[in-house]
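Now for today's protein:

——
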Amino acid sequence: MEAKIIQNLFDFWKLIGERTRSFYKNPEFDFTLINHHIWPSKVFNICSENVLDFEDKIRNHEIPNAIAIPGNNHLNFSFKNSNFTNYSTVKAMFLNLKSIENSFSNIKEIELVDTFQKGVFFKEIAEKSFNYEIDQMTIFSLIGYKNIQLFIGKHENEYVTCGIIYLDKKGNSGIHMIGTIPKFRGLGLGKKMTEKLISKAIQNKSKKAFLVASKSGEKIYEKLGFQTAGTLESYKLV
């Protein structure tokens, strides 16, 4: 199950790279490289143990300084015992959708991102929520594209939450980039966005919904029934 969850994420990164002409395929790994190495510039689908080659390519600015490896992959040992540091561990989680009633579809405070103006709001919310830069054209490239939907949510007439759902080629729905602007956290808005995306996964007729969870989001997802199936480890050259 870990492999399916993480592959959904990798396919999501690949699709963004293809939409922005920033996806590159190497015989031993894939990577996206957005302007100035910003989100989602990542190296993934790695099948090489040549850690020194990754070091050289990063120092020469040929690939991003962000290596993503599933937690159960033996390559973690090679990167942990090198000049790389593990800067992030997130949980790979899934939710069985068969027994869940679709009671979340009519959440009026959450809107589909279907205009460039809403795309601007999405970018601003995401940057404040995750504290990293996002290229506006990356967001624009996803608006109206098949199998991807972006959403933003309001609180007291202000857009403060964001989220994405991605339907992969195998029919699995991946929930991505659920974020809330810091000063609005603790109000249940992240939960509401997650519920909206679950409703979309059910509408997609997916059997399961996938996501990767940071420590701050993990408890929200567990309360909604998500189960942990592994981890995704991220490394950078120090």
Remarks:
- Helices lie at 2-19, 51-59, 75-80, 116-130, 136-142, 189-203, 215-223.
- The radius of gyration is 18 Å.
- The chain has a mean pLDDT of 94.
- The CA atoms of residues 180 and 186 lie 9 Å apart.
